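Methods — Computational structure assignment.
A single polypeptide chain was analysed. Its primary sequence is given first, followed by the predicted tertiary structure written as structure tokens.
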Amino acid sequence: METVQTLDRKRAAGGFVSGGLIGILGGLIGLGGAEFRLPVLVGLFRLPTLQAIILNKAMSLVVVAVALMSRTMTISVAELLPHLPVAGNLLAGSLVGAWWAAGHAIRMSRQTLDRVVMVLLVGLAVLMLSEAWFHLHQAGRPLFSYAPLQFGVGLVAGFLIGVVAALLGVAGGELLIPTIVLLFGVDIKLAGSLSLIVSLPTMIVGFFRYRNSDAFSVLRAERYLATAMAGGSIVGAIIGGMLLGLVPTNLLISLLGVILLISAIKTFQHSR
């Protein structure tokens, strides 16, 4: 029989490899890959959904913090300062959304949470396919010229993004970047950094909220898996960034959208 240490090492190795592959794909299209880690944690490593969400959120915190620091090498703080009100607008809604959603996730039954997660992942897959086919990432003028209306829409959008981030344990960049580009007319490169500024405190709030759940113990029980998978994700993201341009972005996003769609349905279909 295999010892616990041997099993931990095998799971850690599997976590590093899977995290690395996801990180490479995420790095190629500018995402953290948390959307893909969640089905892997549930389907491959057999974690209960709530535990997988909490573990995914812990890893996402590490990946986003590293990504935010690395982006300051290419996009200076001075470039971001004029756009901080945009981040503040979305953050005001996302913090509330993350706190509210995490509190409800703790009280949901496994079946209900599975259904909610499957719907959200399918929605993200459809969004990825829409971006690839219809080129939604196009900066220009803000969607609304009336500032109070723009602020109100930003609050609602931030709240909904916070909900998704809390329920999936993701950074929410797939939703934040198009929102920042379309709603506020910000350049996509700046939008990527602003999305990380919004994501980090949003995830911290959701993470803090989950501490009251019994499933929070997964951080201790699966610490080797989490460390290895987060490390693989970071290494993969760096490699993916270096390979940027080798694969047509639209083709890659379309492929990943289909993969996410299939994996979400297959992983969580037992909830039906």
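Note: The chain has twelve helices and no strands.
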